[in-house]
Amino acid sequence: MGPRRQALRVATSALHKQLDGLVGRLSDLSDYSRYLLATTAFRASVETIPASTEVDVSGFNPTRLHDELLLDCADLTLDPRKIIYEPAIGQGRSAHLGMMYVLEGSALGARLLMGDALRLGLNGTFGARHLAKQIARPQRWEEFLQSLETAEDFDLDAAMVAASRVFEIAICCAEANRRVP
Questions:
Q1: pTM for the complete prediction?
Q2: In this structure, how many other beta carbons lie within 10 angstroms of the beta carbon of residue 82?
Q3: Which residue, 118, 121, 131, 154, has fewest beta-carbon neighbours within 10 Å?
Q4: 3-class state of residue 111 by DSSP
Q5: Which tens digits make up the pLDDT trace of 108-159?
Q6: Do 145 and 78 touch, CB atoms closer than 8 A?
Q7: Which residues contact 106 (CB under 8 A, 6 or more apart)?
Q8: How deeply is 143 buried, as exposed, middle or buried, from its count of CB atoms within 10 A (0-12, 13-18, 19+)?
């Protein structure tokens, strides 16, 4: 494990654990609906960062999932809350890499969640489009890590602040969607 990845992992481990505890495994459609609404709110927040502020890091910009999430919500007749949390992750290459560390890393968890979704009768064309898109290129994580470790003019503190802020937004979204009727 590279030193930058290790530092980001350590800096965000408590937040990551808190988020994992809020999401958990998706054992029924109620759990999945809660997760879907939280993820929709989260992606609406982080995907509001204008493309002009994104810094191309070896082709790594966020995989945008919000449109697929809205379709997944419609499949399950869910009405996503119109909550937008201010991303405020900072600007520049290092903040972008910190944000991408969380977003790209979430694809690892998405693999497990896709298994849960499939068991619930959902798939890449109904209810779990966003998961299918997120896991479509499993090698993307390793490619991102290579870019993270080799990026020039890297400010670890800025990356850690950004990664922590992205986790905080995800936690706020998960907490706001804990109860789904």
A1: 0.91
A2: 7
A3: 121
A4: helix
A5: 999 999 999 999 999 999 999 999 999 999 899 999 999 999 999 899 999 9
A6: no
A7: 134
A8: middle
